[in-house]
From TrEMBL:
Residue ranges the UniProt entry marks as DNA-binding: 127-226
PROSITE patterns: OMPR_PHOB, RESPONSE_REGULATORY
Keyword Transcription found: yes
Alphabetic keyword roster: DNA-binding, Phosphoprotein, Transcription, Transcription regulation
Gene3D superfamilies for this protein: 3.40.50.2300, 6.10.250.690, Winged helix-like DNA-binding domain superfamily/Winged helix DNA-binding domain
Response regulatory domain boundaries: 5-118
Organism: Pedococcus aerophilus
Protein name (Swiss-Prot/TrEMBL): Response regulator transcription factor
Domain OmpR/PhoB-type: 127-226
Keyword Cell division set for record: no
Residues annotated with 4-aspartylphosphate modification: 54
Superkingdom of source: Bacteria
């Protein structure tokens, strides 16, 4: 199996050395870019599995870099920021980041988050194809289609959809979603789940005020609830 690549987009030499050592210990081959523009180019050229992306960069800032990377890649994107403003974190997640950490952070915590993301299962039996009206979820291909269009989902957006559609009408608490999708050895705040679900809803052509597939269970979490005309079709073999 070829060695996976991690891209560090950061203009601080100190953080770059720390991140490179951490990611090398996790088995990655690490490449580095010091500006936003070069980070986008490096993501195109190297097709990394993981991008550690600083928010404050020369040229393009990290939020714009994340937006551009999401136009061609579903790699894991973890934003690293010294800012504590919630708006910055929400913007990063809205642009497609999978997670964020705030400087200063614990290397052990970042390592745990990366390991949790990489542990998520990637395959399922072919008979698990799920069809709900014009929505099709294929766990083997890790692909979702709405009508004839393949949805451009991030890894975490797909994993949330996969989990919810695996057991329609089951309500998942936010803590259950975080534990299953991210892994059980670290915790994040509930708002991360809410932003990822909002992004997923937008790609499914719905919203919190016009729910079709994903229902908000107030004070609890979310569930996938197809309408009577969206009943799952028999599994295709």
């Amino acid at each position: 199996m070829p060695q996976q690549i991690a891209l560090v987009v950061e203009d601080s030499p100190e953080f770059t050395r720390l991140a490179t050592a951490l990611l090398t210990a996790e088995g990655f081959r690490v490449v580095h870019s010091a500006t936003g523009e070069h980070g986008v180019e490096a993501a195109r050229r190297h097709a990394p599995e993981l991008v550690l992306l600083d928010v404050t960069l020369p040229g393009l800032d990290g939020i714009e870099v994340c937006r551009q990377i999401r136009e061609f890649s579903d790699c894991y994107v973890v934003m690293v920021t010294a800012r504590t403003d919630e708006l910055d974190r929400v913007l990063g997640l809205t642009m497609g980041a999978d997670d964020y950490v705030t400087k200063p952070f614990s290397p052990r915590e970042l390592t745990a988050r990366i390991r949790a993301m990489r542990r998520r299962p990637r395959a399922a039996a072919p008979s698990d194809l799920r069809v709900f009206g014009d929505l099709t979820v294929d766990p083997v291909a890790r692909e979702a289609r709405l009508g004839d269009q393949v949805l451009s989902l991030t890894k975490i957006e797909y994993d949330i959809l996969d989990l919810l559609t695996g057991t329609p009408r089951r309500t998942f608490e936010r803590a259950q979603l975080m534990s299953t999708v991210w892994g059980g050895d670290w915790a994040t705040d509930d708002h991360v789940i809410d932003v990822h679900v909002a992004n997923l809803r937008k790609k499914l052509g719905e919203s919190a005020s016009a729910q079709r597939f994903i229902r908000t269970m107030r004070g609890v979490g979310y569930r996938f609830e197809p309408s009577p005309t969206d009943q799952p079709a028999p599994a295709l073999r």
